[in-house]
Amino acid sequence: MKVVDLKPNGRNLPVTNDNKHEYIQLMSEHKMTNSVRQQIDHFLKGLHEMVPPSLLALFDDKELELLISGLPEIDIEDLKANTEYHNYTSATEQVQWFWKVLTEFSQEQRAWFLQFATGTSRVPVEGFKGLVGMRGPQKFSLHRAFGADRLPSAHTCFNQLDLPEYPSEEVLREKLLQAVSEGHSGFGFA
């Protein structure tokens, strides 16, 4: 076991209700960057040998992902075959509308949807049966939500979409498109 000070003399400072947010911020920074700093530095050194940092700086992370991977081919039938339903069934009217609307989306809108619902715009190599969540393999799931005036919401760690019980296909289309177009870029709210 190794003790790492997240801030000067951190090992001697108790985590309290007053400083818990700072602790979480520092712990997250440590886990995601500081603890793997050497690997990140080596990766960036190799990347910058091929592509100058000034050219990479022109793009945000989503644009860079699309440049590297291209626009994915998203097979709605494969997603449908690998979906679990909670308080909905595959025969529920709203679920039927949902699949119809997704089928009518352009490839770009489907990529937005995938990013919104799963946290990535890429389809796993083995198709949607290979989706992974925070607990390992985890299928896409569609959950009934309440409040037809609300937008759909997503839990990307669980590949979960909470879909309100909308009164019509048109309302579902409008709300889903608004949610994915405004909320596909990460930790945001639509």
Automatic annotation (TrEMBL):
Gene Ontology annotations of biological process type: protein polyubiquitination; ubiquitin-dependent protein catabolic process
Residue ranges occupied by any HECT domain in the UniProt entry: 1-190
Keyword Methyltransferase: no
Catalytic function, reaction form: S-ubiquitinyl-[E2 ubiquitin-conjugating enzyme]-L-cysteine + [acceptor protein]-L-lysine = [E2 ubiquitin-conjugating enzyme]-L-cysteine + N(6)-ubiquitinyl-[acceptor protein]-L-lysine
Broad class of enzyme this protein falls into: transferase
Pfam families: HECT (PF00632)
Catalytic-site annotation from UniProt: 157 (glycyl thioester intermediate)
Keywords: Transferase, Ubl conjugation pathway
Gene Ontology MF: a single term: ubiquitin protein ligase activity
Pathway as given in its UniProt record: Protein modification; protein ubiquitination
Keyword flag Ribonucleoprotein: no
EC numbers for this chain: 2.3.2.26
Matches recorded under PROSITE patterns: HECT
SMART domains: HECTc
Annotated GO CC locations: cytoplasm
Protein's recorded name: HECT-type E3 ubiquitin transferase
